[in-house]
Structures are given as C-alpha cells and as structure tokens.
Amino acid sequence: MGESLGQLRTRQLRRRQCRVPTGIERYQIEVYPHPATINLFKLDRIIKYKKGKLAERQLELMKLCQYIIDILPSLEPSLNLSCSTGILPVSGSSKLPEIPTSVATLKALEDKLDALLCAYIGAHWWYWGIDRNLVLGDRTTGYIVIPQLG
C-alpha cells in the first residue's frame, strides 16, 4: 500500500522544517473546530451542527453563526468581519446569514464555517504560540492545537 495524502503532506512539510509546536517557528498543526469553539465561546458542550435532523442542525448552525459574529471580532487576534466573505454578514450587522433548507446546502455552509474557524485557530496559534494554546499529544502519536483564552 502506498503513502497516504496526509503522510505525503507531513513529509513535504517536514522538508520545509515544519515541526510540532514549541515556539515561534514554522509549523504543521492539526486543528478541529469543535474543541476550539468550546474554549473560544466558553461553552459547556459542542455545538451539534453536524448530525441530527435537519431542523436541529439548522438551529445549532444559527447558534454557531451568532457566536462567530458576536465573539470572534472581540478576541485577540480579532476576526475582522468588515469585509464580506459571503459566509457571514458584514460587521455591525446582527443579521444572521440565511440558513439553508436542504441537507446539501446546509453541509456547504457547515464546511465554510469550519474552514473559517480552522483559519482563525491557525491565526490564534500564529499570534499567541504556546502562551495561549493547548497542544494535545506529541510528534509520535499526533497532536492537535486548541486555543485558550487569556
């Protein structure tokens, strides 16, 4: 069996001297939106927008959008919502994006929000490094980075 895409990317990034986070350098990090949202939004549990009945997922996705709009612009680093990406409304607007009514279009919005959150987690790592991020795991077994608030 050949090398997986993840193994190939890891090997390529190691050649560029990317490594497990330890300070201010170049990194290859793995991030997941769910554990990050618990810390960033001070939640007791994940926002369950990925599974369940369509109506339940729609409600949870609305919550996630509202947290992103209300909280991420107030954190450091700040998520600048003043430029419209088409994913969320422009800063200063409390209007939520229209929540899709089909599973396929709901999945597309979920993917966009996940990408936005993952990019923010990467920016949080870049800005704070190990001072305000948890690194769970190690180079041998794998690891993820989760933002911590100050």
Q: Compute the average pLDDT.
A: 81
Oligomer: single chain
**Tally of individual helices:** 4
Low-confidence stretches: none
Largest beta-sheet characterization: 2 strands, antiparallel
The secondary-structure element order is HHHHEE
- CA(first)-CA(last) distance: 45 Å
Shape: globular
Q: How does the helix and strand content classify structurally?
A: mainly alpha
Proportion of helical residues? 40-55%
- β-strand percent reads 5-15%
Specify Rg, calculated over alpha carbons.
Answer: 17 Å
Strand segment tally = 2
Q: What is the topology, as strand order, of the major beta sheet?
A: 1-2
Structure description:
The longest helix is centred in the last third of the chain and has 26 residues, at 103-128. The chain is mainly α. The chain contains four helices and two strands, in the order H-H-H-H-E-E. The radius of gyration is 17 Å and the shape is globular. The chain has helices spanning 5-15, 33-40, 54-71, 103-128; strands spanning 133-138, 142-147.
In short:
The chain is mainly alpha-helical and 150 residues long. It has helices at residues 5-15, 33-40, 54-71, 103-128, and strands at residues 133-138, 142-147.
Topology readout:
Blueprint (H helix, E strand, L loop, with lengths): L4 H11 L17 H8 L13 H18 L31 H26 L4 E6 L3 E6 L3
Antiparallel strand pairs: 1-2
Helix pairs in contact: 3-4
